[in-house]
Write a structure and sequence with these properties.
Distance between the termini: 31 Å
Oligomer: single chain
Order of helices and strands: HEEEHEEEEH
Strand content: 15-25%
Number of helices: 3
């Protein structure tokens, strides 16, 4: 689907569709708002209200970890818009302080109870768009000599 596929759709139609699919406000942070997703109550919609690319960061992190043991610590995003400003993610149930995880990847920097929740019988992080992964990855980068034949 291309952007120009919607060139003839009036803005009021887009607004009506948005209102019909986005439910009650669940939470709001400095750069995103999270709402119920009425077409599927097992999902939430995360909408960026500031261009911080947290949706894109979460999408990329989960996509990279998919199939790895570490993915078990994170809520799965299931769809992201072409601009990254709207993302659907599996919905969590709130946790209390006694349920906070004892083990986390060291690059998760925004450690607040409200950033975690219950999903499929375990506690996972559902707000990991702000993190220290770049610093962590930077410590693990290894360099090697590259032969000219490896270049394309």
């Amino acid at each position: 689907m291309r952007d120009d596929d919607f060139a003839d759709v009036p803005n009021m139609v887009v607004q009506d569709m948005f209102r019909g699919m986005v439910g009650k406000l669940i939470g709001r942070g400095a750069s995103r708002a999270v709402y119920e997703w009425t077409p599927d109550p097992k999902l939430v919609v995360k909408i960026e209200i500031a261009a911080t690319f947290q949706n894109v960061m979460e999408w990329e992190i989960y996509d990279y970890l998919r199939g790895e043991k570490a993915a078990e610590y994170f809520a799965e995003p299931v769809w992201i818009g072409s601009y990254g400003s709207v993302m659907l993610m599996k919905k969590m149930q709130p946790i209390n302080d006694s349920q906070l995880p004892k083990l986390l990847p060291d690059w998760i920097s925004d450690r607040k109870r409200e950033n975690f929740g219950w999903l499929d019988g375990k506690v996972v992080c559902h707000d990991y768009g702000v993190n220290n992964i770049v610093r962590y990855v930077n410590k693990k980068i290894k360099f090697r000599a590259v032969d000219f034949s490896e270049w394309r």
